[in-house]
Amino acid sequence: MGETRGATDTASDAGPPVITGREPGSFARGVLAERHPALIEQVREAFPYGPRQQRALDALLHEIVHGVVEPLDPASPDAGLWSARGPEYFGRPWFDAPFLWSESYFYRRLLGAVGYFEEGAWQGVDPFGPFKRAELVGATVDEELRSLDDLAGAPAHERATALLLASLWGNRADLGFRGTAGEAAPGEADPRLVADDSAVLWSLLPPGAPATVALIADNTGRELIPDLVLADHLLEHGHARQVVLHVKPGPYYVSDAMTADVIDCLRRLRDAPGEAGRIGARIWGAMGAGSFAVRTHAFFCAPFPYERMPADLRAELSAATLTILKGDLNYRRLVGDRLWPATTPFAELTAYFPGPVAALRTLKSDVVAGLAQTTLERLERSGRAWRTSGTHALIQVCARPAGQGLSGPPRAG
Predict the structure, then answer these.
(1) What contacts 165, CB < 8 A, 6 or more positions away?
(2) Residue 360 — pLDDT band, cuts 50, 70, 90?
(3) DSSP 8-state symbol, 112
(4) What is the pTM of this model?
(5) Last residue in a domain, options 127, 146, 174
């Protein structure tokens, strides 16, 4: 199904400014000018690519730093798709395009440079695979899995709260945000959520209701494992009859989860001792029974807000009792990657969504909405880079009954 054309992701409409990399010193500028070139070098070092891939990586590095946005090779199977997605950005500096678009296109170009789509030895080889697999080993993961033993005997409501927060804060385990190799992790987390609609979230999933939860994943590894544990809790305690985990169809934003990553995380859980192993075995069995399902859609790798989701994805999410979106990128796509006033109501920006929707997100970009004025003032007085440091988090819910989201064209601006 085609992507819906809307005005919400263009730089010229009357809404708040769409975020680009034009502003020197901005977060978006730093990602485009510093993080992306560093990632090219890290990917190059992770694999013994041949001369063809090395030349393509050199060309991409030069282009994003010194050149203009080039279109895909006409022979690429998705060349026409990307030509339709943003023809006005080709031939212009990367910094001029909407940040959401330029980030997404960068990852498409990086995959093309390493031969991911071409027939040959490197076809289908995930360039971020080594980084993802490293997330699943080591003492930190062992300790996090052992902590599930302590929760096993806790009252259900305490366990539910702890697992929801674990899924939320697991979003800090973002390899793209940390630079993928050696860059410092985010600073100490502030336990005070900047917005907390967790009570509303649980009210939508009372025990015993025949609920379906759509969980749109973000990162694999140390974020996806808590997501899987939360899904198990929803099923085991009757908050959901089915949990559908939506993942990316291909490598994206370094650590974004694909089906292969889900299986790696499930194996890590299943092979662990104690409660972690029991959870892993239950989810493994739930996949066979159909109560836990993994799905994907090409739109999850598109450079647009969710307002432009195609009709088939909209129909699927409209059938969910609640859709939970994980992470910073999904949040940007949910509310629109714009410089919204931080007190703009979350429900206003998500009114188009086809059913109740929740966002679990640690803040790692400039976009934020739905904050109370007093909270915003406190954050601004702190002197910290609270919007982009990964030290603050939120749980926001738009609890409109299913089917009351807008079903027609996306709103403009």
Answers:
(1) none
(2) very high
(3) H
(4) 0.92
(5) 127
